[in-house]
Structures are given as structure tokens and as C-alpha cells.
Design a protein that fits this description.
Elements lengths: L5 H19 L10 E10 L10 E4 L9 H5 L9 H9 L1 E6 L15 E3 L30 E7 H4 L9 H11 L4 E7 L21 H5 L4 E6 L5 E5 L4 H18 L5 E5 L14 E2 L6 H14 L5 E3 L5 H9 L3 E7 L5 H4 L1 H5 L5 E4 L3 H4 L15 H10 L4 E3 L8 H14 L7 E12 L3 E12 L9 E8 L5 E4 L4 E3 L9 E11 L12 E7 L2 H5 L19 E2 L3
Helix pairs in contact: 7-8, 8-9
Length: about 550
């Protein structure tokens, strides 16, 4: 039951406070500052979430048996008892242990989790039936924490030195309005749009025309799945590489560190920018040295935003990327054995891992498990194994036009449960409040244990706050100071203990003792967000979440 802890302090607090006010003077017109302090203590070995019952303990015992006159001026007959009476006054303690349960339902948190294709701001109009406001009531969006999709290089960079961010800005703003970021891929080429040998080049070759006009070469190749002929950029051509870097520089100047950008895939080479030319007979990838040079350049212009190496960046190139802090994604999940294992290197390098299935969900259900030469079919167990083996932080729920609708319709319970597994997942496993009333002050100390029950660290700074609040979560007073947990330091499976202290001197009103006061915990993405009065954006995996995302501790 959710009740203010002050209910349990009432009787002995009032008795003690009354006596102390007589002894020290009732300065009821004064409202001096209340002292707070907090600290984060060393990591705990706590592992399981205990469903604790309420425990309220008090050490107050002798106040009622003492004459009130003796508090004011001890007589000669009572002076011999003065030392013992003072000892009684020195420490009256109440301890509350809060009941803790896991949250019943899916949890969507920032900088982790699931996405569906978001090709433009049009995804959010009611006319798009698979969108969050569409006619199909696609509840897969309940799990979506960020948008993802591709942009065409020639659309963003239509002429030499000219960049048009208009449509991308509309999408970023539409996502930001819904508290979501965007995972950006800028593609130079897509063989999916080669419909015949006469398909106009601009429909599938998204390298800007000015690049060729400036002297970059292209070759003719054959698409292996239907024999169509098509032109392809020469990926290691010096002019091509020059303008690819110029675009990277402009992209960094515009978006490096932009909070609306979740991460950026480096999609300079190959089909779909995936760093391979597997389906185009006649097209060859650049040497490892050229690929690593491009990674060096991206790392030199992007100082803040997370960069990503696509699927087919392997071997020494992959190793080099990790040294630069560039993580890895894989687009062959479920369908190709061993793909989750390939991401473990990025996880071990303390970087977020990213994945997408090899094909759409409904397509993969029809695979026949013929290996080699075919692909593994999608099964719930393979999906769970892929997420846990790769310690995934980000995953595309589906890549077909139905935007995860069929997947979520078929696997809602499983997907809801895995929303608490993928990436970080913070669960309060222990919470106790100890209040001590002495002759000098009332001190309330909140001790909590938090466990990361996800499969990956939290890859951004997170700020933990404890407060006294009303029943709606409105802050009444902080308990101690905000605690900063640096990015990538709260590892998966780890538990950490935190302590927050609130003090109110005798003669000052203690918020902790007032009726209707509760204790709440909050997680913020920045210190400024808390100080400016914004609601927290990160949710705990505990029962008691309020509409403003604060966790109200329950008795």
C-alpha cells in the first residue's frame, strides 16, 4: 500500500519534538535551510529483488515516563538521573523497509531498446496505418525508444558545397517531440531499386551527380539475383573519397553532439552502404587501408556522437574501429549462425552493440533452416539468444513496411519482457529509510540498492535523485545531493548501493515528518534537466512509477 512514511513517525516524533522544543525554544517563525548530503558507496553483491514487507522499528522508550517539568529545569532530586535522561534524548530511531516489486509491463527507456523503420515525419500522421496513430493501432510503438532509417546522399548533398537538411530536420523534430532520437544512415547506393537493365541510375545510385561530374569513375556490374546490368561507383576512386569526406565533415558540423541523433552508421562503401559488394558482379570493395583511413577521418570530425561500423566491416578494419571508439552493428541476425557472437568484441570494448534481422519478420518465418545455402528461420528462442549473446543495446524490431506490426501481434508478451532485458535496466532491489531524532536535529537517511538487470551497461551519464514528494510526485525537498553515474560504468548484472541524507535542525520544520509526504527516486539524463524542474526521462523497473516517471516507494 502506498502510504507516507511520516504516518509511522507521528506519535513518537510529536512527543519527542514537543519536549525538545520546550528545552531548546520553539522558533516556529524561523525556516532556516535544511542540510542535505548524499554519497554513492561501493558496489554490492546483492543480486535478487526481494519482495520485502514493511518493517518499522523505533528505539524510543523512556520519554513518556519522564515528567515534562524535568526537561525544562531538573530539580536537585532529578540531577542524578540527568545523564541517563540525556542518553534517552540523544537518539530515537525509526527504520522503514519499503516493499519492492518489478513493474508489470513493457518499459521503453532512452538510448537503448527497439526501433522500427521511420523514413520520415509522415510516419506520425494518422493516414499511415502502421504508425503510432494509424488505424491498425500498432502497439509495437509502445516498445519503440528511437527511430531509425536511411537518407540518400544525393538528397542531403544535391550540389557541390550545398547541403539540404530540411526533410531530415522535420523527422528529427517529430521524433524529439515524442522523446525519441534517430539512428542515421546515409546511403550512397541501393540495388533494391534496380528493376531492369534500363532502370535510371538516379533511382538506385544515390551518389550525387556532381561527384561524377568532378571526375569520379563508375563501372558496369551485374546484379546476381536477376542478371540486370547497373552502374556502380568505384569505391576507392580518389574523387569519390574526397567528396565522401567532405560530406562527413558537413554532417559533423551540423549534427555532432546533437541530442536528437542516437548514432550514425558510416555508410560510405558498397550496397546499401554495408561495406560489401556481394550481389554486384564487377564491383570491388576498397582495400583495408582505405577503409581504415575513412574511419580515421570520421573519428576526427565526430567528437561526440556515437559512430557505427556496418555489418561487413570485418577483420583488421573491425579491430581498428574499436580502437577509435566506433562500435559495430550486424544486419544478419537470426538468419546467419554466429552473427550474435561477432558483436561480443564490441561489447567487451565497452561499446553499445546494434543489430537488425537479415530480413523482415514475416519473410524469415518461411525460411527452411537449410545451412549452408539458406537461412535460419525466425523463432522466439533464437531471438532471445541473439539479444542476450550479443549483449545488445539496440535492435530493429522489423524492417518491412508493416513496421513491426505482425511481429508484435504474434509475440507481444515475449517482446514486452525483452524490453527489460535489452540494454540497461535499473531495478531497485532494496530501500530503507532510517530517521533519527536527537537533541540537535532530525536526520533521515535513505539507503538503496540498484541492480542493472539488463544485458549491457548504460552508455550515457545518468543522474540519480532522491526526494520527499507528495502523492503526485511533486518535489517537496531533496534528500541529499544528486549522484552522477558515469556512462558505461554501471555494468550489466552489477548492483550498487547509494545513501542519501536529509537533516532538519531542532526548531525547524522537517519535511520528513509532515503528513502526506512520500519518498521518490528519479533518474535523469542530465543535471540541468533536474535543476530546471523537468521530469525524469529514465524509468526504474519497479512498481510505483508515476505519470512523471518518478518511482514512488511503497510501504
Amino acid at each position: 500500500m502506498t502510504e507516507p512514511f511520516s504516518k509511522f513517525l507521528g506519535k513518537f516524533v510529536l512527543m519527542t519534538a514537543a519536549a525538545l522544543f520546550v528545552a531548546c525554544g520553539d522558533d516556529s517563525n524561523s525556516s532556516g535551510p535544511e542540510n542535505t548530503e548524499s554519497c554513492a558507496v561501493e558496489e554490492s553483491s546483492s543480486s535478487d529483488l526481494a519482495l520485502s514487507s514493511v518493517v518499522v522499528e523505533s528505539s524510543s522508550s523512556r520519554i513518556a515516563a519522564t515528567s515534562s517539568n524535568s526537561w525544562l529545569a531538573p530539580s536537585s532530586s532529578s540531577r542524578n538521573d540527568e545523564k541517563e535522561t540525556s542518553a534517552v534524548l540523544a537518539a530515537d530511531t525509526t527504520k522503514i523497509t519499503y516493499a519492492l516489486k518489478r513493474f508489470d509491463g513493457p518499459i521503453s527507456n532512452p538510448h537503448k531498446g527497439f526501433t522500427v523503420p521511420t523514413g520520415g515525419a509522415w510516419v506520425f500522421v494518422p493516414e499511415f496505418e502502421y504508425g503510432p496513430y494509424g488505424s491498425l493501432n500498432n502497439r509495437a510503438w509502445d516498445l519503440v525508444s528511437y527511430g531509425s532509417g536511411y537518407q540518400q546522399w544525393n538528397k542531403l548533398n544535391p550540389a557541390k558545397g550545398v547541403f539540404d537538411w530540411t526533410e531530415l530536420e522535420k523527422l528529427l523534430n517529430a521524433l524529439a517531440e515524442r522523446n525519441m532520437g534517430y539512428a542515421l544512415r546515409v546511403l550512397p547506393y541501393s540495388p533494391s531499386y534496380i528493376k531492369s537493365s534500363d532502370t535510371p541510375e538516379e533511382e538506385y545510385d544515390w551518389t550525387p551527380s556532381f561527384v561524377y561530374e568532378s571526375g569520379a569513375k563508375k563501372v558496369s556490374a551485374t546484379l546476381d539475383w536477376n542478371g540486370y546490368r547497373a552502374t556502380v561507383p568505384v569505391w576507392d576512386d580518389s574523387v569519390y573519397l574526397y567528396y565522401a569526406k567532405e560530406f562527413a565533415k558537413a554532417l559533423a558540423e551540423k549534427y555532432d553532439g546533437d541530442p536528437r541523433i542516437e548514432y550514425i552508421d558510416i555508410r560510405t562503401f558498397g550496397e546499401w552502404g554495408e561495406w560489401h559488394a556481394s550481389h554486384l558482379d564487377g564491383s570491388e570493395m576498397p582495400s583495408d587501408s582505405i577503409e581504415m583511413d575513412l574511419l580515421d577521418y570520421y573519428a576526427s570530425v565526430f567528437k561526440k556522437t556515437q559512430l557505427v561500423l556496418p555489418s561487413s566491416g570485418m577483420g583488421e578494419v573491425y579491430t581498428h574501429a574499436l580502437k577509435l571508439g566506433i562500435t559495430k552493428r550486424d544486419d544478419g541476425f537470426i538468419g546467419i549462425p554466429g552473427r550474435p557472437d561477432s558483436l561480443v568484441r564490441a561489447y567487451e570494448a565497452n561499446l553499445p552493440t546494434i543489430a537488425e534481422n537479415i530480413a523482415g519478420y514475416t519473410t524469415m518465418l518461411n525460411y527452411t533452416d537449410v545451412i549452408p545455402g539458406g537461412y535460419l528461420k525466425w523463432t522466439p528462442q533464437r531471438w532471445v539468444d541473439a539479444i542476450t549473446t550479443a549483449h545488445l543495446t539496440y535492435y530493429v524490431l522489423d524492417q518491412d513496411s508493416d513496421c513491426g506490426y505482425n511481429f508484435y501481434k504474434d509475440n507481444k508478451a515475449l517482446a514486452d519482457s525483452m524490453s527489460k532485458v535489452i540494454g540497461y535496466n535499473f531495478t531497485v532491489t532494496k530501500a530503507e529509510l532510517e530517521t533519527v531524532i536527537s537533541s540537535k536535529d532530525t536526520t533521515s537517511t535513505l539507503n538503496i540498492t540498484v541492480k542493472n538487470t539488463g544485458v549491457a551497461p548504460c552508455f550515457f551519464d545518468v543522474y540519480l535523485v532522491a526526494e520527499f514528494v507528495d502523492s503526485t510526485g511533486k518535489a517537496l525537498a531533496p534528500i541529499g545531493e544528486m549522484v552522477r553515474i558515469p556512462k558505461a560504468t554501471f555494468k550489466d548484472g552489477a548492483s550498487k548501493d547509494f545513501s542519501f541524507t536529509y537533516k532538519a535542525p531542532v526548531g525547524k520544520v522537517s519535511v520528513a515528518n509532515q503528513p502526506g509526504v512520500f519518498v521518490a527516486l528519479s533518474l535523469y539524463e542530465s543535471e540541468d534537466a533536474f535543476k530546471s524542474g523537468k521530469n525524469p526521462t529514465v524509468r526504474f523497473d519497479n512498481d510505483g512509477l508515476l505519470e512523471n516517471k518518478k518511482l514512488l516507494l511503497k510501504l
